[in-house]
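Suppose a colleague, Dr. K., hands you the sequence of a protein chain of 526 amino acids and asks what its three-dimensional shape might be. Before reaching for any lab equipment, you can write down a predicted structure in token form. Begin with the sequence itself:
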Amino acid sequence: MNPEVSSGRRRAILALLATTVLIVVMDLTIINVALTPIQQSLDATNAELQWSLDTYLITFAAFLFTGGVCADRFGRKLTLMAGLVVFGAGSVLGAYADTITELIVWRGVMGVGAAVVPTVTLALLMSVFPPAERPKAIAAWASAAGVAFAVGPVLGGLLLEQFWWGSIFLINAPLVVVGLVLMVWLVPESRNPAPAAFDPLGVLLSIAAVGLLVYGIVTGGEDNDWLAADTLGGLVGGVVLLVVLVVIESRMASPSLDLGLLRSARFSAGSGAIALCFFALIGAIFITQFYYQAVIGFSPMEAGLLMLPMGIGSLVMSARCPGLVVRFGPRAVVAAGAGVMAVSFVLTSLLTEDSPTWLLVVAQLIFGLGWGCIMAPATASLMSVVPPAKAAAGQAVSQTMRQVAGALGVAVIGSILGVVYRSGMEDSVEVLPEALRDEAAGSIGGTLRAVEAAKLGDQAPALIDKAVDTYLSGMQITMLVAAGAVLLAAAVALRWLPKTAPKPPGPPPVPRPAPSEDVDAPGARA
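The predicted structure, expressed as tokens, is then:
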């Protein structure tokens, strides 16, 4: 802990770092409400539009390790500020992109800058707050990420009602500038006092391995073809490079990427529980957004507002988590949170085209209450085995698992939905012109666009009803898959997370003075 940081300054630092996390996590979801205007303005295909989302996720995941290692070695404040500069510059350039290719490139740059934020902000909090205050600080930090998922679509909808699509990226620039100014003034620098020798090979291998793995997951989910050459190449290449990375780092006396942390049951269980719940969370958000807009017929703004109960529930429970963990322990709190998330997914699987809005609100609120019980206690548990000096590199390992799980959530859950939808719609789309059938059978959005383009007349209502029924069938299956994932997270928590709140690792032992008989050693007699 930095002794010269007063309690008031610590609270200000916490608010600043939590807001920084909110900004970069928000960019994972804010773009969803702008896909249609981006497509129309930049004349983008569906595949190109998908890559404008996925590139951010891929580079975000690929550079997590690098950000953590650089922060512990070169300074956490310096690394965080550099990442924010890259993120802000990418946001401005992306806002004024003239082609979809330019937007994809700048989204990738934004992901590189954003990758340092989750790992480094938590490491800074651990260096600023004393051990007794860290659980509450981590809870506030975790709640910012939960709220960001809900705030993104709402803020995006508000901006699009007044401005052009680029405003959803341009809004980052003033936020980043204010954040940098406050950071210079408020946040003290910290780093690992005894960093390992810089390991460029490990850094490059981590970028390539995670990048290839997430690329393979994303392309497999997009095309629903897991045996395609680019998908298999990415998956196999990523796994092979990860194995090489583990072998090389395990043979180093002081590795930059401390993968040995995964041998700790507490660290692995905390990371695994978060990853499984993140898999379900990202997949569920992806599915329900289409349900709100394509099935129910809500506008992007209305669909975004329906995410607010999730953010409110997450914020409420994150604030209460430290007290709950003291009373019941992280094992019970995380398992209960995962169970509550499972209830929300089962409830969502039962929704229909005619479900009342209040029921959608209740489902989202339950979702947020459950998620709010996961992040803070699981993160506090896994970080309790990481020395504060290595906090950024340790958090990078956990964050990478989470981002890979998020990519898997969209890809796997999206693929399951795609298989169900295509098998249910293949015969029904025969009424459409042949050129429109493939797109119409691929997704409910494709079906609605094809119906509009074909001007079916009297046949349109029957095809739309079939599309809605088929989508609801697919949503039911995918929500049950999500429920299964979080129940598995509950089982992991019950088996391996500690029953009582863990104590953070203390300072290294002070060497004892030499035994008294050394005074009488031959060399000491003179």
